[in-house]
Amino acid sequence: MLRVRRVLALDGFRVRLTLTSGDVVERDLTDVLWGPVFEPLRADLARFREVSVEAGTLVWAGGADLDPDVLIWGGPAPHGSDAHPPRYLKLESPRSAPMTAG
Predict the structure, then answer these.
(1) Pairwise CA distance, residues 56 & 53, whole Å
(2) Chain CA centroid to CA 22, Å
(3) CATH number of domain containing 69
(4) pTM recorded for the entire structure
(5) Rounded CA gap, 66 and 32, in Å?
(6) Torsion over CA of 58, 63, 69 and 71, rounded to 10 degrees?
(7) Burial class for 3, CB neighbours closer than 10 Å (0-12, 13-18, 19+)
(8) Quick check: is 92 in a domain?
(9) Domain, as residue range, for 58
(10) H or E segment to which residue 27 belongs
(11) 100 lies in a domain?
């Protein structure tokens, strides 16, 4: 199972992740930092930059964290061990996705 080993905060709400596979990827988290738990991070970039890795995912003081598969793949992890995550990815909020009739 692929997880985050290290994180480096970049400009804005972007991060560079070193994964347990050794892959290095960049993620733009701008659109997924919504809701009350992320409001302090959006309001204060210095707080966002205090990000750390715990249990293979990103965490912040105050209890904010993100699903590691969303961070790495943009959604559920693909089946198969030979898949490599995209190098760059701008994560999108599920609340901004178009609604479809089911």
Answers:
(1) 6
(2) 17
(3) 3.30.2020.10
(4) 0.86
(5) 9
(6) -50
(7) middle
(8) no
(9) 4-80
(10) strand 24-28
(11) no
CA pair distance 41, 71, nearest whole angstrom: 17
Helix (H) or strand (E) holding 73: helix 68-73
pLDDT for residue 14: 97
Does the residue 87 lie in any domain?
no
* Core vs surface per residue 38-47: b (16+ CB within 10 A) or e: beebeeeeee
| Residue whose C-alpha is closest to residue 91's, from 56, 55, 66 | 66
Strand partners, 54: 57
Mean pLDDT of the chain: 88
Sign of CA dihedral 65, 43, 39, 86: negative
For residue 101, the Cα-to-chain-centroid distance in whole angstroms is 28
Residue 95 has pLDDT above 80, yes or no: no
Please tell me the total count of domains within the chain.
1
Sign of the Cα pseudo-torsion (43, 60, 77, 5, in order)? positive
In a domain, 47, yes or no: yes
Cβ neighbour number for residue 34 with a 10 Å cutoff: 14
Contact by Cβ (8 Å): 57, 68: yes
